[in-house]
User: What shape does this take?
Amino acid sequence: MAVCVAVIGKDNAPKYVSCLNPNMELDFHYKVHNALDVVEEKMSANGKASGDIRELYLGLLNSTDDHKIFGYVTNTKIKFVIVTESANTSLRDNEVRMMFRRLHSVYADVVCNPFYNPSEPISSKAFNETVRNMMAGNL
Amino acid sequence: MWSIRAGCKQNGGLFGAAMRAAVTALLSAPELDTTMNKPDYHQTLDVHRTLLVLLKPIGKSLKSSTFARLADQVQKAVHGLKLSDSSGRERPVYVRLVNEYEPSQNDWGDFQTHRKLLGLLTVSNVTSQAELNEICRQHESLKVKYSSTLFDSRCLVLGLNQEGHLQRSPSINLRSTASSPYSESPYLSPEDFSHSSDSSVPTSTNHSSVEDTCSDATSVADSTLTSPASPTPPFEDISVAEAIPISLSIPSNFKARALYYVDEDAAVRVVSDSEPCLLDSDIREFVSSLFWVLEHKRLERSREKLDKVTLLLAPFEKKDIIGLDLESRSNKRKSVGRGTKHLADLTLQAGLPTEASAHYSAAIDVLKGANDWLWLGSAYEGLCAASVALLGPDGLTHQKGSLKNLSAVELQHCLSQEEICKRYREAITHYSKYLNAAVMETEACFKAARVALMQNKKLQASSFLQNVLLINLNLTEEHKIERFLAIAELYQSLRFHRKASFFKRLAGMRHVSAQNENPDWAQCYQLLVQALPGLKLSLDPKEMITVIHKGWPALQIQLLHELVAASKRMGANQVAVRHLTFLLHAMWPHMSMQERKDVALQLQAAASQEEGAPVPLVLPDTGLILPPANLINLPLVSKFTPSPLIACMRPQKIQIAKVETGPFLFTPLKFGSLDRSKEANSVNGQTKLDFLWVEGDFCDVQVTLENQLPIELRVVDAKLLTDGTVFESSPSTLVLPPLPNPETVSLASNSAASATSSIASVESSVLHSIFTGVPRAAGTLNIIGYSTHVLGVKSNCFLSDLAHLSPSSQFTIEVVPAMPQLQITTTLPKMVNISSHIQDAATSGILSVYAGETEEVVVTLSNISNMNVTMLSVQPWTKMTSVMEREVFGTWENKPLEILLPIEIGKQVKFSVHIYGKASFFAAPAEDSNSLASTAASSSLNHSINSSKASLEFPAKPAPAKPITLEGSFRIRYSGGPGFDAGYCRSAELALQIVVQPSLQIVKWDVLAAETPSNFYLVLDVLNQTHEEAELCYAVGKSIIVEGDEFCRVPVPLPKCPLELLSELYARDAEDVTAAVRSVCSKHVSENAQLRWSLADGRKGQLRLQGIQLSDSMLDTIKASPLDWVLSVDGTALSCEEEFTCTAGRPLQVLVRLTNQLPFPLDNVTLSISIYQDYQNGTRNYRLDTRVAIAGASTILLGKLSKEEPAEHSCSLVFFTPGLFKVDIQCCRLGGASATTSMWKLSPIPQFCVLEGD
Assistant: This one.
């Protein structure tokens, strides 16, 4: 399923990055970081387009030989990015959406924690657990 | 180096990679096209409309600046050029000037005609014939090189005048306009041109200036090279025939047209507004010549029958064609399609986009049917180019509504905005099927991206750019770098800063990659620096603190590491040190403990070669300024507090401000202006400290340093940074122990969150230290920070940057002028454990005295400063009551000290202090024995002094007395020098601890009447509490030796308490008379008893009886009687000391005369006489009726008794039996209201010794 999951704050600084293969960590940092350009572009395009309820799912941001990068933006401009392997062709768009929705709800749980400072990186165990599951494909 | 692969392949998405590979393998040979492997990354779609011209400097004497100027001018001349065609239509002509062009690139000219090199312009400078010859040769050889495609050429020659004469003076001889046939009209007329261009055979025309090269005329090239045909047709402006002696001859094989200019100024000088400069007109003429050849070829092509057209081929297709049936239907279709496409290319170049788009559309239709993907792609690209040309830059950005100036016919084949991108995408897809068309594809991607950018379709543009990286191109490293830079630039204009930065970095790393044979670290460094903003990194530490620069720490750290490595390899160690410092400073919170340690060690190694200093660094190549970075985390200062001077050095105002004496009132409102200014200070981020520092004194700031590294940290040269008055900071060197248990800091590398939390859990190794310094002038001193030298880097850390410390950015301290300093020493040993309240004392002394002893302490004041002490005052300062204080220290006078002043530099003065060992001399009562005093107090009034005789035994020994410790101090205030003038002084405290050892103590006491009525004896039981023999002198000439720990009983003769002291009390009628009397008597006793003791070792002291408790019976003895008694028996006065002897049975006439000694009369005085027998065993017998009889009143009320009127009473006594009788005569005064009475007795009691009668 996912090989990397990232949560990026509204100031575009990372709040949480986790990936399946720790050796590839820096790679994924670059990938997700670069994908932010597209996220911003899509957000500004969306913002201009219409005033109706915004679609939070941004769709495919980028795809390479190895990976596909999907994006999702909450209404508070928190960005979720999920990287999947390009080889995994069985993954449907709907499944990616599901992952994002799940991620969003777990994130909401994290933010509801009164001891969590929203400007800090996420260090919640429950959140970590969900992300791990997501990456292991146990959704 | 670090991984450069990161994200390298991140792109694509446009075309399935797997599909691409399959198709490429299928459609083209795996062999790579080596002939044309350098794409031009800077093309736009407009390139399809341009005529390609090579502009090249030749010859050695041409300055590059001159060439640049001329090239600039040429560029201007060809810009926006419009020519009228034969039908009078205006045609825009675009010229693309290049400096280099590989002939192999011409090979693709059939595929896309704008790739053909059509014109050649050379620029040269001539100073000699030989040079001219060389230039001509080079020009000719260039012509040959591009002969397959060249239409025309010009050779611009500087240094010759119009006639081809060598020109050295620039002031003369511009080319005369008359001499040139073209100067009258810079453009060729169409007629002219058709005349010249009709001839496909070279050199036959009289227009030798129009170089007659056709695309397929390779033979021409040969002929120009080989045949030395005679030049200079009749109106050739180069006139060799007219050569004057300095004229140079044109080599015979030079067939190009040369344009002579005296110098560059002459070439670009504008003669008048209406006329362009020489160069301009020449260039325009040249361009028009190119145009007309092109137009000719276009017309030629358009007239050809489509069926007859030979198959045009891309270079790599040539070898595939062998064995193919050229006459097959599909091939026919191909050749028609390709021919149409070629025509469309020419049409577009000739400035007819509308026609071109129609041709392209037609070509697309044909090529689609022929499955000729490569050419179809090219046709799509051409159509896009034509559409873009039609729409113009405005049309791309605006909606269709703005295109009103174009008719529907013109737009018939034109693509809409959306279609342009779509078609281009198709074109690229088609290209991608051919491995050999990789260059085409790459260029197409860049062009498409630029178009998309113009249309503001950023995502489209981005996807085009991503595709570039998927194209398999066999490029040299240099070209790869160029490609990355071009991509970065485009991303930059797309405002995709992150990607731009990523590619900048990639390009930079390519400069030094393993494959690169000549690595260029400087270039790498430059590009890495350019990548900084995209990662939200600024090299200014101040900016990094702000929220704006909040990026991705992991990436930032890597980039900084790369910068460090690049600068090291560049040889700029200083820069590397700066970057490492910055890395440690800015990325500290994001680094793991191990990373911190590594970076710190790296920094230490780098800085060992060259020290880092906190000054901005200017990079030599770019002028980029690296602001200083300071290591505020190494060590981390967690506490920074300036401390006041030690107590004995602290300055004070000599004039102490008025102390509020009124009742204590509290108000929450602050009225004082002082308070307000204090608050204002703290608002400004400054803290005004409420203590003073003294010029010339060592002052310090207490700091707590934390080492957060698992290595030992050596802080060298730690100093304070100040401004305001002069401050001399003294450097200190500190060594901080390493952080314990570094392995507990396991940093989960994927989350910054766990990093911070785990670091917080580690206990830091903390060092408390001080930074010291000496203020060198009085005034206001601001402490703004500190500087350290850690790991070889000097850092200036300002308090304003240390957000964790306190809100105040600086401390402000008032420094008062210099003052002298005294060292205080005493003859006493110093205190060992100093109690808290005298901790601040300058010096201390411990003194052991016996109770009652007076010890002299000599205090020495040494002036150890460099100025005189001109003011000195000493004052005892204790917690004792003032009475006690006076007793211990005596009454203190400052006057005698003044003679000691001034204390000069280096001198010392002495004064002495007398200390009295004050203690109670009365032993605490032992538990098992009644104190004499207490029994006396409880005994009844008429129980007389004899009670003391009741026990002759000494009382049981009381518990040994313990030493008493008294504490006190002397406050020594002194001043001098400028500090004194400013009204300040120092106050040093001399703390004293006085241990009072017990000496002699009084265990019991009593009084005995003396032989005379004016005296009495104070009988004391004295216990020697020392272990030595003591001699007690208790009266004049009377002394006794008391062994250690032994008792002795001494009678101290004392006068009675005189009436004067008591008389007043008698007058009072109050109840407390007795108590008052008691205290008066006690005082009388203690003042008069002069008891002195001396020990065997010569120590001596007093035994004072202050506070002696006296019982009522004792008081009776002590008090002097206010009445004067005269007792006479049988007419003779009786002295009471002796017995009166008489015989039994004989009456005795007793007369008592009383005189009041008091100044006031006494009322209600009763006189009574009673006789008793004392059995000497404590019982007195008053019942003597059988033994004695009194004739007359034994009790009589005397009434008023005044001084003037003595009272008399007489009676007769008859003793019946012999014996010893005592007569108790007493006088009572009944109190007025109360029942209290005053009573006086005749003392000593008269005794009658009655003998047996005769």
About this structure: The radius of gyration of chain B is 63 Å. The CA atoms of residues 178 and 703 of chain B lie 91 Å apart. Residues 497-614 of chain B form one domain.
